[in-house]
Amino acid sequence: MPGLISTAGIAMKILFAFENTLPNAEADAEVFVTTARYLGAHLDESWLHVPVARQNRHIASGLANMPIIRAFAPLKPAALRHFMCGLTIGLRREFHKADLVYTRNLWVAWMSILCGQRVVFDHYRPWPDQIPPLQRWLYKLFTHPRFLGSICHSDYTRRKYIELGVPAEKLRCIHNGFEPRRFQAPMALEAAKKLIGVAPDAKTVIYTGRVNHKKGLELVIEAAKQLPQLTFMFVGSYGEGPVETLARKVPNIMIVPWQTEATLGQYIYAADVLLIPPSLQPLAKFGSTVLPLKLFFYLGSGRPILAGNTPDVAEVLKHDETALLVQPDSLEALVNGLTALTEDGALAARLSAGAAADSQNYTWNARAGKIFATVQGWLEDAATAKPGHWGAAQEGVWKRESRRWFAHFARTRSVILPPGP
């Protein structure tokens, strides 16, 4: 049975369940483990259930700042690891000692509920849109009495679950964050440029993150051709891919390998413009990115930001206040925006100051406080939670979008269905 709940100054106990191995440089690990670490400071007791090699158990515990409960799961292959993490979680003593399981994995959430535990889900993907055949099952999962609620990383995703018929009270948009300590020793622009081998008087446009065809970087390559006076840097290459091949043909683009946390800041501080490629492709074509994590890191850096005016990004970045938002997938808009930010010092300074001020709303510590208050409310209101609604509208969408998904899968072998007809 779940632990006893006190509604006055809740002494909450949470078992955090992560399905991938640690240590791990991927964004999902950073978001989940950092959230667990900061949220753990609000709790009476917490544990992290995770598949981890014995020699890495101490490292994982340090990352999460809580005891590690090793999952009864192999480290490879990934599909079996995920399956076993959910299948065996109910065997752990801490599972029954906790007030709830906090997870980003749908299978773990479902198995936890079947084993009698409460669940809070935390994820960025709009699963009802991306895998429509799951819609009916997702509805049953999210409206189960022991499913307390879902922390959505964007309002874009939250709305997709509301359309599914899940009560709005069970859905809360709480954006991701950044770690302020990574900016405790700010570096002057010219000094940072010198450190990474760029001339101090060069105007730099820097993108950080995965360098691949799903990020809208092809548009940036075309802009670089029209702006030979600017130095473009793509920081985050894993090798020689199609984007790298295209970029190497443009003399003012530099390809930089993936950087560690210790070295990434050098490139951030060396940016005259921090770039989120202004394209709808990551959201609408590939469905792989909703509110990229780098956005929050950029906000805290004190450097000017240029991004696309897309539905997800516009939830956080405010045009002409904290960033310059341009028309997505428009080469002309991108070229004009980069020209403005690199030639108008007053504009760049104003947007930098606005971003730095707003960034205090998006620290990991602030996110954890919002999540704790939300979960506390869900626990207190669990007995009176509103039922969901699955009607003719949801049934029709489920059947229509499932047919579209099967056709898409047969054609592409991709399980993620992009939005749109």
UniProtKB/TrEMBL annotation:
Signal sequence range: none
Domain Glycosyltransferase subfamily 4-like N-terminal stretches: 72-181
Annotated Gene3D superfamilies: Glycogen Phosphorylase B
Keywords, ordered alphabetically: Transferase
Transferase is among the record's keywords: yes
GO molecular function: glycosyltransferase activity
InterPro entries noted in UniProt: Glyco_trans_4-like_N
Highest taxon above the source species: Bacteria
Name listed for the protein in its UniProt record: Glycosyl transferase
Organism: Acidocella aminolytica 101 = DSM 11237
